[in-house]
Structure prediction request, 224 residues.
Amino acid sequence: ILNVEQSPQSLHVQEGDSTNFTCSFPSSNFYALHWYRWETAKSPEALFVMTLNGDEKKKGRISATLNTKEGYSYLYIKGSQPEDSATYLCAADRGSTLGRLYFGRGTQLTVWP
Amino acid sequence: DVKVTQSSRYLVKRTGEKVFLECVQDMDHENMFWYRQDPGLGLRLIYFSYDVKMKEKGDIPEGYSVSREKKERFSLILESASTNQTSMYLCASSLTVNEQFFGPGTRLTVL
Prediction:
């Protein structure tokens, strides 16, 4: 089992606030780090896959960074909107051909209008 | 677009019943996965399969079995349902590495 930790467990912000949360993972045997967004009553959807130390990915107001040497990734949301309310999951990937990912428990974000 | 479908969105069963949850994907993916999600515990892997008739235990396989007779279909079986198996069950599929594609989930209640 590969231990992936996410913090905080939940977060409540006002519309327009910027926010960020953390995913930490063991830096040994690392291949990739995945971020997913899971909205209520929908399926989890992939946001980013990052592999290289220092990688930074961006999709609209959401961005993520990766530090493989120290084993953490940050997800940032700029100017949060109510539609950003969701659970954000990160998952560590060891590059196994079996495709297994190791998920954290998620950060539940609520954005109040 | 990849499509992963699950046989039911909501299911209510009685303790001791045998329960089948079906998952079908249409993108010829080798790997398929069954997770359960409980509040505060995130996604926990029950079983996964990397090829037809091949399976591997995940982190919480007790009380479950799986079947993969065809590449596109992966079934989760609760041999004798118990109340502690009340949960949201998610199926996913992927190619050999990287992004997993998830189905809509089945919310199972065992009474």
